[in-house]
Amino acid sequence: MIRHTLSFRFADDADRAARESVLDELRTFPDRYPAMRGFVLGENISTRDRTFTHTMAVDFDGQDDLLAYLGSESHERFVRTRWRPVIAQQAITSFEFTERAPLLEGRNPPVSTRPHGPYGMEYARIEVPDMQETIDFLQYHVGLQLEQRTDEYAYLRADIEHHAIELIHSPARTDGWTTAVGFSVASEEILEQLHKNVLDAGLEVLELQERQRALCDNGFAVKDPNGLVVELFTEFQEYAEPPHIEIRPLDLVHPFIATAKFEETLDFYQHVLRFLPSDHVVGSTTFLRCEDRYHHSLAVQKNTEHYVAHLCFAMKSLDHVMRMRARALYKGAPIASDIVNHSASTSIAFYMHDTRFGPRYELCDDHRVFTPEEHETHRPRRMPADPRNIDVWRPASDDWGRF
Ligand SMILES: [Fe+2]
Question: Membrane-spanning regions, if any (predicted)?
């Protein structure tokens, strides 16, 4: 391993905002340079030597990775335009070292000093032309439980969380349309940091939907580059017990978002909302994760238009996935993509789609959850856009037909 350290002192005339902005940008480096391991950045608290105000230390697997980072165009541009104007003095060291073997099995996971993102997905809000038919579909074919219903809206839940789907009665629509997605945040501190990131990015901070305000402690909303509302909040209300339904989802895992603004959308979720990239199908789809460590709590797909393409629910077992598939076949519910074995998330799933009810519904088993250690150290794979990299059960590189 190579450890690379950088100690520095800001120029006296660099104001607080300029300093914070540069420090914030440094904190995005582990996301921007996936070869970085064990990134730390802190203020100098030494009483012996106050020459430098801060030190940053990052590890790389080897000298090549370090040199690739230092020589990259984006790093050189950062040094030229952002760094030099505000830094008075710096010192750099790089040295080789060997990681100490763990002293005990089951040692604590690495302490994370990176900025945290949301905890995980909680719900989607979908406008539908026929609420009763949608409720019937979600109860029978997805296994959700209806908890509350008025003429205007309905809440359905999967497990103890207050709801996984909120339906809005919209008779003017012919197809269902997802207007918002909700993500819980683990603490007020993280929520505050995300709020600050949104403001720093020059985006408008919106209020939570009024009903949602009563279902959590604190939160705000922001529109992603496609206009999809993302609601972020702490302490989402939950029930004492899960529904007494044997075949039901355990969790709503992710939305899959198609977008004509691929780079902009990725930048928003990765650098403003601090989702972590897990894998890329190059030029097609990027999978991003939250702090609940599911392989992805969000997928972003390059497309010619924006829509929420599917919502993924995790079932208790493959047996339950297959029982739901049997129900779909029995009732003639349209199966948009039959049993697939996803390479990215190692899950086995099928998809149903009736456009009246909103996006596709993916029911899966065994969605990968990273260990705490993997969550801090995982390096996203860059996989070519080949159907076998999306479903490992595809027989050939041109077998796109069944997606
Ligand atoms: Fe999915």
Answer: none
